[in-house]
Amino acid sequence: MNTHVSLPGSDRTVRPWGWFETVSEVPGFKIKRIQVFPGQQISLQKHARRAEHWVVVQGLAHVTLDQQSFDLAVGGHCDIACGQVHRLANRTDAPMEIVEVQFGEYLGEDDIVRLQDDYQRI
Fold first, then answer.
1. pTM of the model
2. What is the rounded distance in angstroms from the CA atom of residue 57 to the CA atom of residue 23?
3. pLDDT over threshold 50, residue 3
4. Which of 44, 47, 38 is nearest to 97 (CA)?
5. What are the Cα distances from residue 39, in Å, to 20, 72, 93?
6. Which domains does the chain have, with CATH numbers?
7. DSSP per residue, 13-56
């Protein structure tokens, strides 16, 4: 299954769970918009070379950080340390969107260690 699709005229990348687009990228940090479709979730994952900060800008986000799970409404935010296990889920019937700021020396999409994935991308 091809899970990487770029929309014409956009840098938006569609995934089975939603989409993301890079808003800004300079050495050391990247800013992305991420939308998770209703009832979907990203893989349970961690990163070896980056940390992240999430801010909810639309909907209600269900966040897993290590052994904790909690909901964040619009304006809510959380930090994900380098190596910390995390997941973003949308348990509602409306779109959910966050702004993600990535920090680190390497910010490539291949710095993802998937521990569990609904789409068999492990």
1. 0.88
2. 14
3. no
4. 38
5. 17, 16, 7
6. 5-116 (2.60.120.10)
7. EEETTEEEEEEEEETTEEEEEEEE-TT-BPPEEE-SS-EEEEEE
